[in-house]
Amino acid sequence: MARSVTTRRKTLNTLFAWAVGLLIFFPILWTILTSFKTEAQAISDPPVFLFFDWTLENYAAVQERSNYMRFLWNSVIIAGGSTLLGLIIAIPAAWSMAFVPSRHTKDILLWMLSTKMLPAVGVLYPIYLIFIRMGLLDTKTGLVVVLMLINLPIIVWMLYTYFKEIPGEILEAARMDGATLKEEILYVLTPMAIPGIASTLLLNVILAWNEAFWTLNLTAAKAAPLTAFIASYSSPEGLFYAKLSAASTMAIAPILILGWFSQKQLVSGLTFGAVK
Amino acid sequence: MATQQSRSAARIMMAPAVILLLGWMLVPLTMTVWFSFKKYLPLRGGDLGWTGFDNYVRFFTSSAFWPSVQATLVIVGGVLAITIVFGVLLAALLNQPMWGRGIVRILVIAPFFVMPTVSALVWKNMFMDPVNGLFAHLWKLFGAEPVSWLSEASLESIILIVSWQWLPFATLILLTAIQSLDSEQLEAAEMDGAPPLKRFGFITLPHLSRAITVVVLIQTIFLLSIFAEIFVTTQGAFGTKTLTYLIYQRVLESQNVGLGSAGGVYAIILANIVAIFLMRIVGKNLDT
Amino acid sequence: MGRIVLDKISKSFGDVEVIPPLDLAINDGEFTVFVGPSGCGKSTLLRLIAGLEDSSGGHIRIDHEDATHVPPAKRGLAMVFQSYALYPHMSVRKNIAFPLKMAKMDKAEIDRRVEGAASVLNLTDYLDRRPGQLSGGQRQRVAIGRAIVREPSAFLFDEPLSNLDAALRVGMRLEISELHKRLKTTMIYVTHDQVEAMTMADKIVVLQAGVIEQVGSPLELYRAPRNVFVAGFIGSPKMNLLSGPEIADYNAHTIGTRPEHIAISQTEGVWEGTVGVSEHLGSDTFVHVKCAAFPEPLTVRVRGELDLSYGSTVFLTPDPEHLHRFDAQGLRFA
């Protein structure tokens, strides 16, 4: 039951919370602002906050220096592809675990999660060799597969927790109604689990989009996504604040916008269904 | 509670995920173990034969080993402590009545969407740069000498950057947990005469224990293998060489695959120790 | 058209035997109720018939054909679940049509049957709503609608009324009985509520711990319960079961007498007792009487109103015509 609070208290809360929120958001805000400055203004002393000559020249320069659209496209394919592939493999697995649990279900789930703990660097060279052997180095296909594999445990885990909330009687009803297993999953389970599947999809797109070990180490020119695009700005000769900011803004904007629009699904997804 | 038919169907449908993950785990792992017993230098002669435990001894006794384990643990521990303490406080704050909570929440979540390479670069250049960074300007404003953050307080700087990235995650999970707290419990405690701080300590915090477990588990998984933040800031210099980064350097920079693989096996062992520990807690929490 | 025979059917979960081998025949068109306390195996038995669980032994025959290993969808049975198990993302129309769609029936026939079922169940105005927008009783009807469109050889009901409030429950009870009279299809109905069993069944199967205690028509069970368990379970208020030295005259280990078969008097009778709480229903009065001879208070049912002050002395006399005698094993003998 919500109780009425004094306006004074609410005002104080509001001020404090907004101050903290802005403080946390400030690095992003500062980056976005700097991306519209000239290089001189970007390093002016004292720093200018809002009153500068807004310009788009940095965006043009970044696009010219490195083909942004190609990196963006690679990111979209890799993040989207790995997530969709993961969902296709994980939905049946999560169905099994949620609705036909056995003595081993929990062990399998924990084991799957434990594969996430395998340090990537420990297996970097073998994967590198396998990729060379299979011609997957610097290909989007290779990265789709690897990112699908590293996110698969999380996808299975999340779907499992969502599926478990769907009453088994409904699936039994479908079975009595003559649905085959495929029809049961396609026409009954999946539509009912849409919110959960959406959260899973979103969170994993974000994780894959931001993944910066395999994407940096397994790509060169052709398949490099935005993580690599931005890493190329870490070398000293590329160090111009305004251009760095423009490049950064371009790299994070798509996911930031996606994340903000789907905040609600994301919040439930972020908790991995473990916290109600 | 199912029929034989659905049980066998379940086994078939679980198979792809299990087989793929098993392969993903076993194949590279076997290769890493294989290499770790070899003198293997791809650019300097390739496979130079078996060396027994030589690589293990060399990696373990190298002067970089213990500092790297220490750096790893300090970063993981520091980030966990900061994100949980501030996460709880922030969640408690966001749970208060206020205007524009949705917008504040958006502001707080935002860092989670920023890719590690971007956040590391932005912090490194635009905030922590001793000449042009905002911190330098701020220090000068108060008449202090600007600090060269990433070399003088390197570990702290990395912890700050990584904490900034993970604070939203901790906050959101803890906020969800706080919101699920039955307000009647708090009201009962109020009726029993518990002041606000005691109510927080005796009711809210214990209620959050499960959520905190989840935060610790998930963050540890990701923090043990942070890479990009170090790759684009210090490149492992100034005491920020984590075990992950040390192995990376052995394998890719010195091209000593045998030695790096031995390091990889150590890292896997370390991760497994942490994993067993965490799985116990999570497994227990799952039952309830 | 709907004769179901269970032949030495049994079920174990791991080492735990939930249902020891059991025989039962359900005739075509019969309304059979499985009744028993919770955990007695009645729902498991229903799920075995439905095919949602494998039997651990024995055979199930539906219309003389062995259905033991036939998957649920192929058994020609329809089930109404306790939670209704409606598909929340489909409209009422799609819910009812789902089994027909799964059977690949043609569109026109599906529409015809759905409309038919909807008009029988008063759902015509709700066909385009989602289950979430319906009341409990309406959801129940949709679940029944989804069952009847398939024209199954038997209906299975798993405690279908337990989620409804008391008033609706009485109404739905009548509707289901009405439906049975009209369709004349075999129905198997699971409940823990003996009132539902008594009012609806042609045949009651009383179960306890997976074992059939008695099979019979409601009145057979009322008049001649086979043992103490059935005697105590069937009938409301419960039968008074008395034992102890006081009843040595009756030549039995335990005697049972229903509340409606005891005469109460302020002057004379067999057992003396003091009046406890009286429950006034208007049509009847239930008087609880504590007798020195028995540890448990007796319940007496009196027609109409009867005013007895708390603590006053009364005398009870059981009707010898309706006295049930049980031996040391709890079995009734005439």
What does this molecule look like?
The complex is a heterotrimer of chains A (about 280), B (about 290) and C (about 325). With about 280 residues, chain A is mainly alpha-helical. Chain A has helices spanning about 5-35, 40, 55-65, 70-100, 105-115, 125-135, 140-165, 170-175, 180-190, 195-210, 215, 225-230, 240-260, 265-270. Chain A has a single domain, classed as MetI-like fold (Orthogonal Bundle), CATH 1.10.3720.10. Chain A starts with 6 loop residues before the first helix and ends in a 6-residue tail after the last helix. Chain B has helices at about 5-35, 55-60, 65-95, 100-110, 115-125, 135-140, 150, 155-180, 185-190, 195-225, 230, 245-255, 255-285; strands at about 40, 45-50. Chain B starts with a helix and ends with a helix. A two-stranded antiparallel ribbon of chain B has the order 1-2. In chain B, about 45% of the residues are buried. Chain B is flat and about 75 Å long. Chain B has a domain at about 65-240: Orthogonal Bundle (MetI-like fold), CATH 1.10.3720.10. The mean pLDDT of chain B is about 85. Chain B has 13 helices and two strands, in the order αββαααααααααααα. Chain C is of the alpha+beta class and about 325 residues long. Chain C has two domains: about 5-230, 3-Layer(aba) Sandwich (Rossmann fold); about 240-325, Nucleic acid-binding proteins (OB fold (Dihydrolipoamide Acetyltransferase, E2P)). Chain C is about 25% helix and about 30% strand. A six-stranded mixed β-sheet of chain C has the order 6-7-8-3-9-10, with helices on both faces. Chain C has a five-stranded antiparallel β-sheet with strand order 13-17-14-15-16, with no helix packed on it. In chain C, α2 crosses α3 (about 105-120) and α2 (about 90-100) packs parallel to α4 (about 135-150). The longest helix of chain C is centred in the middle third of the chain and has 18 residues, at about 165-185. In chain C, about 40% of the residues are buried. The model of chain C has no long low-confidence stretch (mean pLDDT about 90). Chains in contact: A-B, A-C, B-C. At the A-B interface, α1, α4, α5, α6 and α7 of A face α1, α3, α4, α5 and α6 of B.
